[in-house]
Each structure stands twice: as structure tokens, then as C-alpha cells.
Write a structure and sequence with these properties.
The chain is α+β, with helices and mostly antiparallel strands. It has helices spanning 13-21, 23-29, 113-142; strands spanning 2-9, 33-38, 49-56, 59-71, 75-82, 85-96, 99-110. Helix content is 32%, strand content 47%. It has a 7-stranded antiparallel β-sheet with strand order 1-7-6-5-4-3-2, covered by helices on one side. Strand 6 and strand 7 form a beta hairpin.
Length: 143
């Protein structure tokens, strides 16, 4: 499945990219971000691995992510596998009329039929969560 969320942000593309590409800054930007723990010595670029903890319905949820693609100032893709489903999140940043256009594309690929069914059932909730994160990034970058 695929979800897409887009925001026009009144901030420079460098500022927006830094916010979504730096795990610690991203977790400061989102309201339910709790902490980031690096699993590699490197802190940015392809191969960076980290464990992110977020609050989900009042409880901490932890997941491991790895940076798979990294084009400084333009896009970053981070993957994680949760309960048999690969989640690939890609942020694209572009300049548009002196502002930034931020696009988040989230793809899921489940390896079992039950995981595929569950993903379809939670699709509206996933879209809502992505929209909430994008609103938070926009607010954070425009401060």
C-alpha cells in the first residue's frame, strides 16, 4: 500500500531537509517523539541505523530504522520492519516559489496475508498519523 502527504512550508529547503533527515531533530518536531538511540556510530547518511521511541495511544512504541537512500537537501528514505511488514518512508524536499514543498511517501510491503489485511484495515489511521507528523514538521520549521 502507499500513502502520500504533502505540505508547503514557509522555510528554506535546507531547514526542512535537516528537520526530516536528522532523527533527533525530527523527534523534537513531532508531538509524540520521545527519544532516539543510534545503533551505528554514524549519525547521517546511508547505513545509519537508529531506534526511535514514540508515544502511541499513551504507550511507548519502539522501532528500528535504517537510512536506505540519502541525497542531501533533496530526499531521504528510511525503512523499518514491524510485525512482518516493511515500511519505507521517503521524504522529498523541493524549492517552490521561495518556500519548500515537502512530500512524504510511505509504502508498506507485507510478507504474510494477515499482515496485508491488517495494513488495509489500519490504512486510514496510517494516513492520519502521517498528516499529523507533516503538520508538526511544518509548524516546527516555520517557527
Amino acid at each position: 500500500m502507499r500513502w502520500v502527504a504533502v505540505r508547503t512550508i514557509d522555510a528554506s529547503p535546507d531547514r526542512v531537509f535537516r528537520t526530516v533527515a536528522d532523527p533527533e531533530e525530527f523527534h523534537r518536531a513531532i508531538p509524540d517523539g520521545v527519544k532516539v538511540e543510534y545503533l551505528t556510530t554514524q549519525r547521517s547518511g546511508v547505513g545509519t541505523k537508529f531506534r526511535a521511541t514514540r508515544m502511541n495511544r499513551g504507550k511507548p512504541a519502539t522501532f528500528d530504522q535504517e537510512v536506505i537512500e540519502y541525497d542531501p537537501g533533496r530526499h531521504i528514505r528510511m525503512d523499518n520492519t514491524t510485525h512482518g511488514t516493511l515500511w519505507a518512508g521517503r521524504f522529498d524536499v523541493a524549492e517552490k516559489n521561495g518556500q519548500s514543498l515537502l512530500t512524504l511517501t510511505m509504502d508498506s510491503q507485507a510478507d504474510r496475508w494477515l499482515a496485508r489485511l491488517t495494513t488495509r484495515l489500519i490504512a486510514p489511521m496510517v494516513q492520519k498519523a502521517l498528516e499529523k507528523d507533516m503538520d508538526a514538521v511544518k509548524d516546527y520549521c516555520e517557527r
